[in-house]
Structure formats: structure tokens, C-alpha cells
Specification:
This protein is an alpha/beta fold. The protein contains 12 helices and 10 strands. It starts with 26 loop residues before the first helix and ends in an 18-residue tail after the last helix.
């Protein structure tokens, strides 16, 4: 899968947040998610025959009787954002840009939500901030996993991109397969609180360094403090294109990559109890996809709509 980057953007780094927010959710914060997963889930066997493996507990409750949408229309909404090109580019004195920024703004335009407050966070703060009601929506795209399904709800898919392994130039550690990340002496870097962090934890990789943003992560890789990073492909492509002399490269043709590393759409996060907001958000996203709006947003930011909307195995163009 190729991702094409046409435009370069200036990188800025927001100040670091305390890593105490990173490792899991405190019991007090976890209690903020009151109405758990939907009691009824899709018929997994039926959809499996049609080529869709439905993840357990991934469907939100759709029997809505809450006031979250009307409240957002009346009082506005707090959107969690973070510095991370190409998802968000937050510049002092300039308008925020980025793929996820533009998609969320399009959702608000579709729904008629006119009062939007941006709350700038570090990525590890996103879930705790959602559950403590500091924000109403995780505006940075987020991927489902079993741990996250227990704590908050996901919107419908917005777009798709691959996860990649980035190594030092020349791949001196000889990383050729996912299993190689488990080898003794391999230092792996991830963003704290990210899907990659969950994957390396599940893989029982021992030597892992966690970072609050991709700029610090790639700096550590370039300086040799870690041997590889597991990262979103868009962030990796941006870093390499903006820093052509950096001694790093994406590992191509990686073998035995777990299916859930690839087959996972980018979505947005809301609280379980904000059901009407979730259903409206999801309806907006489906309309934006089907009418080409998200495709044009991807084009605007230098990514191929033919490759970054659908999972590869479900891409009608492949």
C-alpha cells in the first residue's frame, strides 16, 4: 500500500504532558463511563460469511434516549486535538489545519454545530479527558481495541491508513518480520496510549520506550536511542519527507504482521452515554464518505483517496 504526500507542512511541538496519564485509566476516571457497551451485538457468524469479521463489543448502543446531540447544538462541543502532522497542525496565530481537523469541521457543518471549542492535549491525555468530560469528542482519529471498547464508544469509520515499522537507515537490526520485534536487544518506540502501544504490549515486547508525540519518537530513533518505532504510516511519511537527511526508513515487506494491525479503520471517540451525538456523528461521516467530501480532504492533504478510505481487502478500486 502506498501513501502519497504532496504537501509539506511546518512542524511545531506542543509542550509535554505528564506521563502519569499514560498507563491505563485510574479507577475514578474509569467510573465516568457509565452506560457500557450495547447489550445486543451484530450477528458475527452472519457477517463472517460475507467477509466482515466483527470485533467483539465493537458496536455502540443505538437505542438512544439521551440529550447529548441537542446539548451540543445548543451549547457547543469540546473537541480534543493534538499536534501531529498530518492529522493536526496547530500553529500559534494561524488557523489549525490537518486531515482530522478538516473531517471534524465537516461533521460539525453537516450537523449544524456552530460552537466548537478546541482543547489542545497530548495524545496520552485523550481518553482520560473524554471520560472526565474535559472534552466531548476525541478528535484525533483512534482505532478500536478490546481495552478501548470497555471504556468509550466509537463513531463509524472515517478513513483508513496502515501501521508501519520504521527502522534506522539500512535496517541494521535486520527487522524482516513482526516477530523480530521480540528479539533480545531490539529497543522499540511507540506513542504512549496509542494502538501501537497496545500491540507491543500484547506481543509481550520487553524493551519498549513510550513517547508523548511522534516528534520525540522519531528524534529518539534518529539518535539511536531506540532501534525501531511502530507508527502510523501518515506520520512516518511526513517525518521522512520533511527530514530527508534523517537516518531512518520504513521497513518494506514486513512478514507475519497480525491482521488487526492492518484491518482497523480510523474513527473518533465519544462517551458511551452520548448516544445521540454518536449516531449523528456516524451518519455525518457516512454521508461525507459517500459524497466524496472525505476523499477530497485526503487529496487536499496529499493522500490518495483511492487508498486511504477503505481497508485494502475491501477497497472497491483494488
Amino acid at each position: 500500500m502506498k501513501t502519497f504526500l504532496k504537501n509539506k507542512s511546518k512542524r511545531t511541538i506542543i509542550g509535554l504532558a505528564a506521563l502519569s496519564l499514560v498507563i491505563g485509566l485510574s479507577p475514578m476516571i474509569a467510573q465516568a463511563a457509565t452506560n457500557g457497551q450495547a447489550p445486543i451485538q451484530p450477528d458475527k457468524e452472519y457477517f463472517k460469511k460475507l467477509g466482515w469479521v466483527v470485533e467483539a463489543n465493537s458496536s455502540p448502543d443505538m437505542a438512544c434516549n439521551d440529550t447529548s446531540l441537542s446539548r451540543a447544538l445548543r451549547n457547543g462541543i469540546k473537541l480534543g486535538i493534538y499536534q501531529g502532522i498530518p492529522f493536526f497542525n496547530i500553529q500559534s496565530g494561524a488557523e489549525t489545519t490537518g486531515i482530522d481537523w478538516d473531517i471534524n469541521m465537516a461533521v460539525f457543518k453537516y450537523l449544524g454545530i456552530t460552537n466548537v471549542k478546541s482543547v489542545i492535549l497530548q495524545w496520552p491525555e485523550m481518553v482520560p479527558s473524554l471520560l472526565s468530560k474535559k472534552i466531548d469528542v476525541i478528535g484525533g482519529n483512534i482505532h478500536g481495541n478490546p481495552g478501548r471498547y470497555k471504556n468509550f464508544a466509537f463513531t463509524a469509520p472515517a478513513w483508513w491508513y496502515a501501521t508501519v515499522v520504521v527502522a534506522a537507515k539500512g535496517n541494521p537490526k535486520g527487522i524482516k518480520a513482526w516477530a523480530d520485534l521480540k528479539k533480545s536487544g531490539i529497543k522499540v518506540g511507540v506513542i504512549a496510549g496509542s494502538q501501537a502501544a497496545a500491540w507491543v504490549k500484547d506481543a509481550k515486547i520487553a524493551d519498549v520506550s513510550q513517547f508523548t508525540n511522534s516528534a520525540l519518537e522519531f528524534a529518539a530513533l534518529a539518535a539511536g536511542r531506540v532501534d525501531v518505532v511502530v507508527e502510523d504510516e501518515p506520520s512516518s511519511v511526513v517525518f521522512i519527507n520533511e527530514n530527508p537527511s534523517a537516518p531512518v526508513q520504513i521497513v518494506k515487506g514486513l512478514k507475519d504482521v497480525p491482521d488487526d494491525v492492518w484491518a482497523n479503520y480510523a474513527r473518533y471517540g465519544v462517551r458511551f452515554q452520548d448516544c445521540t451525538l454518536n449516531m449523528a456523528y456516524s451518519r455525518a461521516l457516512s454521508e461525507l464518505i459517500m459524497h466524496g467530501v472525505i476523499g477530497r480532504i485526503l487529496d487536499k492533504h496529499g493522500f490518495a483517496k483511492s487508498e486511504n478510505i477503505f481497508e485494502p481487502e475491501h477497497n472497491p478500486g483494488s
